[in-house]
Design brief:
ten-stranded mixed beta sheet; Jelly Rolls; 6 helices; 2 domains; mainly beta
């Protein structure tokens, strides 16, 4: 779970499901999370700070500065459940351009490939059954306040080609900055495929 701050206050919480593949994109105007596979739950409603958080799958995504939603990115289909508050649902056209529409709480949307968005009231049981159990409860907004110290990332190992290979076929705007970020590793033998 990650807490995003707006000044000294927590502006949003993002929970990441098990075995998820995601990338925090460097955007100056918002928090943007590219999800290649897996689950994320975003809560910007409870904080009341109106910090916009965007979560994007290859086919479908959502953005909110005062709402709660769950995004699931599967092998061929992306799904978004608008739990509460306000949220914008968006999709990516064949040319990469985005279109957005307002969503209402309890709306469930699904989209695969270039198909139209299939929206309905309430999630289907397959979605609910597959969702991480902890996503059924509200995210703990005060988690960051209860922590005695900030958690600093620790280096585990150098990134390997297999770690980033599936990002090479990701949407173009997701790949922007990857070459610069992983530039030093591109010269190593692990990346000479």
């Amino acid at each position: 779970m990650v807490a995003f701050k707006s000044g000294a206050a927590v502006g949003g919480i993002v929970a990441v499901g098990p075995s998820s593949r995601l990338y925090w994109m460097d955007r100056p105007d918002r928090v943007t999370l590219a999800v290649r596979r897996g689950w994320v739950k975003v809560d910007t409603l409870a904080a009341g700070e109106h910090l916009a958080v965007h979560a994007e799958g290859p086919h479908l995504g959502a953005a909110s500065d005062a709402g709660t939603f769950v995004l699931h990115v599967g092998d061929a289909v992306d799904e978004v459940f608008h739990e509460s508050g306000s949220m914008q649902l968006w999709s990516r056209n064949a040319d990469g351009a985005r279109t957005s529409a307002s969503s209402t709480p309890n709306q469930f949307a699904r989209r695969g490939g270039a198909d139209p968005i299939n929206a309905r009231f309430g999630p289907d049981m397959d979605f609910v059954d597959a969702m991480p159990p902890s996503f059924r409860d509200p995210l703990p907004l005060d988690l960051a306040a209860r922590s005695r110290r900030s958690a600093e990332p620790e280096r585990v190992r150098e990134v390997a080609y297999e770690d980033v290979a599936d990002w090479l076929s990701a949407p173009r705007d997701w790949r922007r900055g990857l070459a610069k970020r992983f530039g030093p590793r591109l010269k190593g033998p692990a990346f000479s495929h």
